[in-house]
Amino acid sequence: MIRLCSRQDQQVIYEIINDASQAYKGIIPEDRYHEPYMPAEELMGEMEDGVVFWGYEEDGEIVGVMGIQDKGDVSLIRHAYVRTRQRNGGIGTKLLHHLISQSDRPVLIGTWGTAEWAIRFYVKNGFRLVSMEEKEMLLRQYWNVPERQIETSVVLCDDRWNAGN
After folding, report:
1. Alpha-carbon distance values, 113 to 13, 56, 151, 152 (Å)
2. What is the phi/psi pair of residue 26, to 5°?
3. Closest by CA position to 70, among listed 89, 101, 49
4. Which domain holds residue 28?
5. Residue 115 needs a FRET pair 20 to 30 A away by CA distance; which of 29, 34, 53, 128 works?
6. Run means of pLDDT, 10 residues per run, the chain, 165 residues
7. Burial class of residue 160 (count of CB atoms within 10 Å of its CB; 0-12, 13-18, 19+)
């Protein structure tokens, strides 16, 4: 079951993000990986900044989360994570399709350029990589990330991106 998360779910969101992000260790640049990957204060800031989290529940437990953030003319998919022990069971796909259906505007996703499994996942679900030039412009326009993250990330878009832009 997919449900809207609330502030009361913040601890479980924190746990899922930091469990699942272990997959980045040794994959993304060392200077961008730290533990916890997302401190509680950063998660709280993301929620205050408009990231709305949805959770996937199995047996009354949230096992996957994905956020969506309204940025005016686009929606951003943010912080897509599934607990390590539940990966590869379709949870991410269900969450992604649910969030896409919540938006009536183009959807953009940023991820690490070396996270090949994430890129494959989004491409398999209908997204395409944008050019390097467009990536830099989009990351500066819609995200608030350091320059180093801009250098080492990619952006993917859905079919609606070309239609409206």
Report:
1. 24, 26, 9, 6
2. 80, -5
3. 49
4. 2-164
5. 53
6. 97 98 93 94 96 97 98 97 94 98 96 97 97 96 95 96 62
7. middle
Residue-level pLDDT at 27: 93
Q: Where are the beta strands (DSSP E) in 83-142?
A: 107-112, 128-129
Q: What is the CA radius of gyration of the chain?
A: 15
Bridge-based pairing of strands 107-112 and 75-82 is: parallel
- Partnered with residue 57 across adjacent β-strands are 62
Task: At 113, give phi and psi (nearest 5°).
Answer: -65, -25
pLDDT for the residue numbered 163: 44
Give me the number of domains the chain comprises: 1
pLDDT at position 162, please? Answer: 76
Q: Which of 140, 72, 65 lies closest to 110 in space, CA to CA?
A: 140
